Each structure stands twice: as C-alpha cells, then as structure tokens.
C-alpha cells in the first residue's frame, strides 16, 4: 500500500492512533520536507519506534512558546500534557533516519496533511495520541466555499512575482528553489513554502497551519513576503552606500599613506603623529571584539585631538595599551591526554594518591565534555541551547585545595596547568581588603589599573589560562568593600562570561579560565564562596613521606639553587630523619626545604674555597651547621605522675601533642582553667569535671574533695590559643588520674569529645593527630569508635608501627589509659588506688 492510499484508508475512521513527536522552534507544514534532530529520551524512542511501523508515519506537533522555557532550563525535561503543545498538528512520514555517535538521532520527515490531536493517551516510553484528520486546504475546497478562481490565481501570481524580485535582490538565492516556487501548481503549497522560507516564528507558522481559508492564507503570505522584499531592498541600498563609504575610506587611506611618505621625506612627521598612526594600525589589525574596537577608536580619536603632551593623553595611551594587548580571542589548545597528566602529577609530587586521582577525574570530565561537543552537530546544538555554547570550554566546578602550609597546594595547581598545556598565573589574595583590587579602578582615579584577574590574563597572553586564587581564607573586608563578593561573580559560570572590569569598562569572558583556589582554614572562607567550590583536603606528610620528598625533590632543588654540582651534598636517611625530628615541626615540607637550603649553602662555602669533593653530612654534624636542636621530643613526660594525660590536637600547621595537667587547690572552690582555652574547650573541661564529680560518691571518693578543694586544669604552651571539643576525653582522664592517684600511661595519647552521658564522640583531623603522635614517639592512640573509618587515611608505615584502640565509652578510655596496679612503682597506697579504680569501672559498667 502506498502512502496516499494509507491516508485515504485512515480517513474512513473518525479517530486514529499514532506516535507523537513534539518539536521546538519549528512547525512542520503539509508538503514540506525538513531535517530535524531528536535529542530527548522520549523523542528518540518515538523516532526508533516509528521506523518499526509499516508506514513509518507519526504526528508532528509544535511545542507552545510558554512551555519551551522549562525545556531550555532542563535538558532532561519532557512534555507531559496536551496543554504544552498545539492541538493542530501535521501527519508526517519519516523518509530517513540517521543515528549520531552519541545521543540524538537525525530524521528527514515529510508533512502529509493537517490533523487535530484529541487525546494524549501515553507518555512513557513514547508519546501516543488519538487524532482526527482535518479538511485539506486546496483550490477545489476554496472554490466550493465561494472563493473565485481568478482571485486565487491573482494572489498566487503576486506571490511568485515577489519571489522573483527577492531573487534579484539576493544574488545568493538558489535558482533551483526559485524554479520550484514559480512552477508550484497548488496555491496552498506555495503558501506553505513561503512561510518556511520566511523563517517565521512558531506562533505565526502555527497560524498558517491552522488557517482553513485558502484566500486568507494567500493574502497573509503576500503581506509577509512584501514586507520581507522591502527589507531586502532597503538592505541592498544600505550595502551600496556602505560600499561607497568603504571606497572613500580606502581612498583616504591611500592619500594618508602618500602624505605620510612625503612628510617622512621632508622630515615633518612628528613623533605624536607617528605613534597615533601606529595605534591606528594596531587597532585595525588586532582581533578585538566589536565593542572593544569601537571603544579603542573612540579613545584614539580623543588622543588625536588632545595630543600626548597632556596628562589625559598619557592616561588614554596607557588605556589603549591595555585594551590592545588583552587576549580577547587568543586561546591555547588543551592537552587532554590523561596518561600525560598522571605522569606530570607523579613527576611533580610524591604520594598524594587520592588527590591525584581526584584531579584526574576532574580532567576526565573536562575531556568528555570536549569530546561530546566535538562529535555532535554544533550548529544544531547551539541553535537549541545557545546559552551552553561557551560551556564547552569550561571545566565545571572550581576546585579548592585546603590544608596546612607547605603540603603542595600551589604546586598542584601549577602541575594541572602543565598537564593541560595552559599558562599558569597565581593571584595572591592574602591581606586583600579592597574590592577594586579584583574589579579594577575607574580611570577617573590617578594611577588607576585593571584588577588582578585582568592583569593575570594580560600576563598569560591567552583567555583560557589556569589562575590560582591563593589564600582565599586571608581575604578581609573593610570600608573599601568586600572582595569575597567580587569572587562570587568571578567564580560563578553563570555570570563570569561577562565580567566587567571597571578600568577596561568592557565585558570580558572569564568562563574559559580554570580557577583553582587554596586555603589553610576553611572556617574563615565565607559560606557563599565555599558553596561555589569543590573542596579537596590535603593532609600533612608522614616522616617517611618527608624523607622521600626531600631526597627526590627538595635536596636536588636546593643544590641547584646553591650553584653546586648534582652530587655535591649527600644526606643519609638518618640525617634527614634527624633534621625532620629536631629542626622542623610542620605538616608540610617548607621549613624542611629551608633547612636543607642552609646545609647546601654551608657546602657551597667549602666549594667556593676550592673544595671539589662531594660532602656527606651525618647526624652528629647537624648542630655545627644548623645550630642546637629547635624541637625536642616530649621525653620529660616519661615519669609517671597522677593528674597528667597526653592529648592530641589539630592546628593549621598540622597535628600537635598537648598535655592536660590537673591539680587540687586546697580550700579552693571553683574550676580554674589556664592555657588560653577557647569557649568550646572550656565547656569540655566543665563537662569532664561534672562527669567525674557525679560518679565520685558511688565509688567511695570523698565528695569533700570537690566541695572543699578547687580544681585547676592547665594545658601547657599557654601563649598559643587552643579551642575545640576533642580534648574532652583527655581532661576526664587527667581528673580521674588525679582522684585515683593513678598515673596515665606515657606511651598513650588520646582524642575525642565527651558528653555528660559518658559517650566518646567523633572528632576531625585524625590523620594529622596520629602523625603528631608518631613524631613524638607515642605507640598507642585512643580514638572514638566512629573515627575508625578515618584510619584509612593514615600512611601504612605509620599505621603498622602504632596501636589504635577504639572507644565509644569513657570507661574504655580510662581502662586503657590508666596504669594498672602491677605497673605502678613506689606508690605506698597502690592497693587502695587499685581498689577504688576497680569500683569506678564496676560502677561505669552498671
């Protein structure tokens, strides 16, 4: 059965059922063949299902403009009701289907006749509708309705004449298309072809489809085509005038060139005129956007009027230099080889396995986005989603490396730029308080300059570098504004494509820049800014990792800086270990590199005096080169003393070991706290005292110890502020040790928050705290049970040398922290103390 026969057979039924394909931005008219792209899930399913039917027919309906907003905002949105499409649609046949490599399918469809959709009966997995055929718009039906044939012929002839005139006005008008229009036998078909060629909006084309009166349809098309021909005629006149103007400008240019040659021969061309001519050539040859070019010409005209001698002339000259040197359209091609990126990261950084994997994932996402846009038809895609054109080049979320100083945050950003083949620029934000430093100063101010972002682009020479925003947590705010608010715009991909620097006073596209942030303390970064960042935390290094980094990176770099041969300085592993333990105490390796630089300079002095043999530095020689040891391991706590417990703390510089000391104050009353404790830490001390006090009477401890004596808790290093809840278990242990006259094990450190119920709550910074305990020589660490998952981040070599005891109750902490009776030496009342601690454990367990 052919297509025509199938159409007539279906007209015998009042309602028919067919698949539905909704289209955006186009209306398919009867007799018109169009290529379309189906990209959404249900549309692709409809196209594939249609090809499985006998006649390969479907209903094509236009989506209402008010429903298109939802589809443009969400790529996965679908049509769910008849209210979102026009009921009058077109029955069509699929001529050809092409499947693209990824996602969409391309169809060639031909409109057959008009239909009215009566009911949407299915939306999943495909659209299915009931429809009714509408009367055809033909010459016979128009004459039968009372329209004279001469009227139809006159309107048809007028439309064809206008098409002839349009072809004469447009030299690129295809002759074959004109022949089709002039030999069209059916007036309705000519009207439909005219509507398509005029590229009318969806509502106008839908009105053409719904029109049943052929005379009215032809009159409307005649009016629309006449308006288009008038526009074409006016455009041709404007182009003619423009051509004359260009010819006049060319003639003026040649005359100016001749005048310039004559002046040079006579020696009359002054430097100012020569400079202006050079600027004019740079503006003409530079690839500036239209708005920037207009601004440059306007400023050059002002400079030519007032001259370079005036103060304003110098300001204009500087502005033009910035404007012409900015990389408005210069980009660098990305290297998206992930294996190359891995090699670069491994060559530049030791360890950091998880961090490197996260960076590779970030680059892989960027690569897939680029590949997807390359493989798809960009013209079709951009017509449907123009707002996403610039996002082909963006890497997505802005990553921010957070961690202690010296762990490699800045160098990781430099490695990312190296891996991609992009220029790297670092913008330091430390101490920044004036928002004009980022947004630029207006040219009305003396010494005005562009903001730091525009300056970084100027130095990079391309518009898609890697820019590191260093020290985000050091940004301040005062009467000059809030720079963090400017960063919100700079880092927002929905806004930064039109960032306006106040100095340039022109929009500049920042969307192709890869921004990377760094911070030491995320608590000081404003929450709205953190919301735009993807945080990647970097922890401190273990001793073994520091040794490997020193041998592979730091020592060779310092040898080169000192001007020494490659093998001039030899540091055995034990020497490096002594330098790390006794001369540095940090999470990163910055101070370690400084100490190695000192050793290299000592050797450089020997080489400068004529010594040319390699020098090995052994541990016993360190004090002669670096001076007395700056840091000593906490050996003084080896003596057992009741009331002293070892805790672990987290700082911006990494983990630290701290001691909590408790003593009774005879005839005192209250709790005294010293050591610059913050509010949270003071509350932890009060909770610890209250908890032990509330359980004292039940184990035979005289309550007068609390009523008649005060309690003093002290955390040494009083010049350093301390805060946080993680010292809670340490304070409970110190108080219990004092009451029981039972010492705490000196090889054990602990951390964890407590509550009045005796539960040990989880804390943060487990890796840094464990590394600090390992540096100090502690072998046992008591951790909250819920922090067991965090032990995965502890290096394997450290984890294998230490014992970790997980506790969820305070009695477990005391049982593993306090020395048992057989371990206490020279305690006269050891038996009584052991008896009391046993009662305490029994009471806790009950």
List the helices and strands and how they pair.
Blueprint (H helix, E strand, L loop, with lengths): L2 H9 L4 E8 L9 E6 L2 H10 L6 E6 L2 H9 L14 E12 L5 E18 L5 E6 L5 H6 L4 H21 L5 H8 L4 H11 L4 H9 L3 H53 L4 H15 L4 H17 L4 H15 L12 H11 L4 H23 L2 H7 L13 E5 L6 H12 L3 E5 L7 H4 L12 H9 L5 E5 L12 H8 L8 E3 L4 E3 L5 E6 L7 H4 L2 E5 L5 H19 L7 E2 L2 H11 L6 H19 L6 E2 L5 H5 L17 E8 L2 E13 L4 E4 L4 H16 L9 H4 L1 E6 L13 H13 L7 E3 L2 E2 L5 E2 L4 H11 L3 E5 L11 H6 L1 E5 L2 H8 L12 H16 L1
Parallel strand pairs: 1-3, 7-12, 7-13, 8-9, 9-12, 14-15, 18-19, 20-23, 23-24
Antiparallel strand pairs: 1-6, 2-5, 3-4, 4-5, 5-6, 10-11, 16-17, 17-19, 21-22
Walk me through this protein's architecture.
This protein is an alpha/beta fold and 846 residues long. Helices cover 46% and strands 17% of the residues. It has 31 helices and 24 strands. Strand 5 and strand 6 form a beta hairpin. Helix 5 runs antiparallel to helix 6 and helix 21 packs parallel to helix 23. It is extended, with a radius of gyration of 40 Å. The relative contact order is 0.05. The N terminus and C terminus are likely disordered.
Q: Care to count the β-strands?
A: 24
The end-to-end distance, rounded to whole angstroms, is: 90 Å
- Specify the structural class: alpha/beta
Q: Which strand-content bin applies to the residues? A: 15-25%
**Oligomeric state of this protein:** single chain
The helix fraction, in percent, is 40-55%
Shape: extended
Give the count of helical stretches: 31
Look at the structure and give the mean pLDDT.
81
């Amino acid at each position: 059965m052919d297509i025509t026969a199938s159409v007539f057979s279906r007209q015998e039924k009042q309602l028919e059922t067919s698949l539905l394909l909704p289209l955006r931005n186009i209306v398919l008219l009867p007799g018109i063949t169009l290529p379309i792209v189906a990209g959404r899930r249900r549309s692709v399913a409809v196209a594939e299902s249609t090809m499985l039917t006998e006649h390969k027919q479907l209903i094509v309906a236009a989506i209402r403009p008010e429903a298109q907003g939802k589809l443009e905002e969400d790529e996965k949105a679908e049509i769910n009701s008849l209210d979102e499409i026009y009921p009058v649609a077109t029955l069509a046949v699929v001529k050809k289907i092409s499947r693209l490599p990824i996602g969409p399918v391309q169809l060639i469809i031909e409109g057959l006749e008009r239909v009215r959709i009566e009911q949407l009966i299915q939306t999943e997995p495909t659209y299915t509708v009931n429809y009714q055929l509408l009367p055809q718009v033909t010459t016979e039906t128009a004459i039968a309705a009372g329209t004279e044939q001469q009227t139809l012929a006159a309107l048809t002839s007028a439309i064809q004449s206008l098409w002839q005139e349009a072809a004469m006005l447009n030299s690129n008008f295809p002759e074959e298309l004109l022949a089709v229009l002039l030999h069209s036998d059916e007036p309705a078909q000519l009207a439909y072809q005219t509507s398509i060629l005029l590229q009318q909006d969806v509502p106008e084309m839908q009105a053409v489809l719904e029109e049943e009166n052929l005379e009215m349809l032809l009159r409307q098309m005649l009016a629309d085509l006449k308006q288009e021909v008038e526009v074409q005629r006016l455009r041709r006149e404007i182009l003619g005038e423009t051509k004359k103007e260009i010819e006049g400008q060319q003639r003026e240019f040649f005359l100016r060139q001749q005048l310039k040659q004559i002046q040079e021969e006579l020696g009359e061309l002054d430097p100012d005129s020569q400079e202006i001519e050079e600027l004019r050539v740079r503006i003409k040859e530079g690839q500036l956007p239209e708005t920037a070019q207009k601004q440059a010409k306007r400023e050059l005209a002002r400079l030519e009027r007032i001259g370079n001698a005036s103060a304003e002339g110098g300001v204009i000259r500087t502005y033009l230099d910035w404007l012409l040197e900015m990389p408005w359209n210069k980009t660098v091609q990305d290297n998206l080889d992930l294996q190359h990126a891995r090699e670069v990261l491994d060559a530049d950084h030791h360890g950091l396995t998880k961090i490197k994997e996260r960076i590779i994932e970030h680059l892989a996402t960027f690569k897939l986005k680029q590949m997807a846009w390359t493989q798809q038809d960009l013209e079709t895609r951009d017509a449907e989603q123009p707002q996403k054109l610039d996002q082909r080049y963006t890497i997505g979320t802005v990553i921010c490396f957070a961690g202690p100083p010296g762990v490699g945050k800045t160098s990781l950003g430099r490695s990312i730029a190296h891996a991609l083949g992009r220029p790297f620029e670092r913008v330091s934000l430390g101490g920044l308080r004036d928002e004009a430093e980022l947004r630029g100063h207006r040219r009305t101010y003396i010494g005005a300059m562009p903001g730091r972002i525009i300056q970084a682009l100027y130095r990079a020479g391309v518009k898609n570098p890697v820019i590191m925003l260093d020290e985000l947590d050091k940004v301040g705010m005062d009467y000059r504004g809030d720079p963090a608010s400017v960063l919100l715009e700079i880092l927002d991909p929905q806004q930064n494509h039109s960032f306006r620097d106040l100095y340039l006073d022109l929009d500049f596209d920042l969307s192709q820049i890869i921004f990377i942030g760094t911070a030491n303390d995320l608590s000081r970064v404003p929450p709205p800014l953190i919301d735009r960042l993807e945080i990647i935390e970097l922890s401190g290094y273990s001793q073994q990792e520091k040794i490997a980094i020193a041998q592979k990176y730091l020592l060779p770099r310092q040898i080169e800086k000192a001007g020494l041969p490659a093998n001039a300085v030899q540091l055995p592993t034990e020497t490096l270990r002594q330098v790390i333990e006794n001369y540095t105490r940090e999470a990163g390796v910055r101070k370690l590199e400084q100490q190695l630089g000192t050793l290299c300079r000592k050797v450089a002095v020997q080489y400068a005096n004529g010594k040319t043999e390699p020098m090995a530095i052994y541990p016993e020689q360190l004090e002669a080169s670096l001076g007395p040891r700056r840091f000593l391991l906490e050996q003084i706590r080896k003596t057992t003393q009741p009331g002293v417990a070892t805790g672990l703390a987290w700082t911006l510089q990494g983990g630290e070991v701290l001691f909590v000391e408790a003593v009774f104050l005879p005839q005192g009353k209250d709790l005294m706290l010293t050591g610059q404790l913050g509010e949270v830490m003071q509350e932890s001390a009060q909770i610890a005292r209250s908890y032990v006090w509330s359980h004292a009477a039940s184990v035979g401890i005289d309550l007068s110890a609390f009523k008649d004596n005060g309690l003093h808790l002290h955390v040494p290093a009083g010049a350093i502020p301390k805060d946080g809840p993680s010292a809670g278990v340490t304070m409970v242990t110190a108080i219990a040790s004092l009451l029981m006259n039972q010492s705490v094990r000196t090889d054990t450190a602990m951390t964890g928050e407590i509550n009045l119920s005796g539960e040990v709550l989880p804390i943060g910074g487990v890796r840094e705290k464990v590394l600090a305990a390992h540096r100090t020589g502690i072998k046992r660490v008591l951790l909250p049970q819920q922090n067991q998952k965090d032990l995965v981040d502890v290096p394997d070599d450290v984890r294998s040398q230490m014992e970790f005891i997980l506790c969820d109750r305070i009695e477990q902490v005391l049982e593993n922290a306090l020395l048992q009776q057989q371990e206490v030496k020279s305690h006269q009342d050891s038996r009584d103390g052991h008896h009391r601690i046993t009662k305490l454990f029994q009471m806790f367990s009950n």
